[in-house]
Design a protein that fits this description.
The protein has about 190 residues and is mainly α. Helix 1 runs antiparallel to helix 2, helix 3 packs antiparallel against helix 8 and helix 6 packs across helix 7. The protein has a two-stranded antiparallel sheet with strand order 1-2. The protein starts with a helix and ends with a helix. The radius of gyration is 20 Å and the shape is globular. The mean pLDDT is about 85. It folds into two domains: about 55 residues; about 130 residues, no CATH class. Strand 1 and strand 2 form a beta hairpin.
Amino acid sequence: MTNSKSEAKNRLHAAKHSHDKNARVIERLQSTIEFYTNQLDEIEKDIKTTVNADKELSGKIKKVATIKCVGVMTVVKIIAETGGFFLFQNINQLISYVGLDVVENQSGNHNGKTWISKKGNADIRTALYMPALSAIRFNEKMKSFNERIMETHTYKKQGIVAVMRKLLILIYTLWKKNEEFIPDYKWRQA
C-alpha cells in the first residue's frame, strides 16, 4: 500500500509539471493519495491495537523501541517478518536471512569488490533503511560508527548498510534478552 501511495504521488508530481495539465486527473490523483493515507493510518491503528492487546508482546516491543531512531512500527515489522526471532539461534543466521551478509569476490590472487548478498528478506532491509539514516543523523554513537566506517570505505551506502546491520543486531539482542536499550552500556559495565 505504501508503494501504491508513492506511485500516486509520483504521478501527481508528473501531472502537475506536465505541459498539458488536466485538472480532473490532478483531482483524482489527490483523492487517491488521500485514500491511501487514510488506509495506512487505519492499518497502523489496527496493528497498534493488536499489539497493545497482548501485554507481554507490547512490553517487549516498547523495550526494543527504546533504541534512539527506531520506532514501534519498525520493531513490529521486523518481529512479524522474523516470527519473533524464533527460528534463529544466533546473529549470523539473522544477518544472512535479512541479506545483510557480506559476499566477497576473490579467487587466488584476485581480490574484487565486496557487497551484501541481498538474498534475504527485502522487507526487513526496507524497514531498517530510514531508521539507519535517522540514526546516522541523530544518534551520536551511530554517527561516530558511520564515520569510522566511512574512513575506510568510499561509498556512503556502505556506512548506511553497516548501521542497518548494527540496528538489526541491537533489536535482536534486546528482544532475546527482554531488556531496554542502555545508551552508555559499555561505561555502565565498567
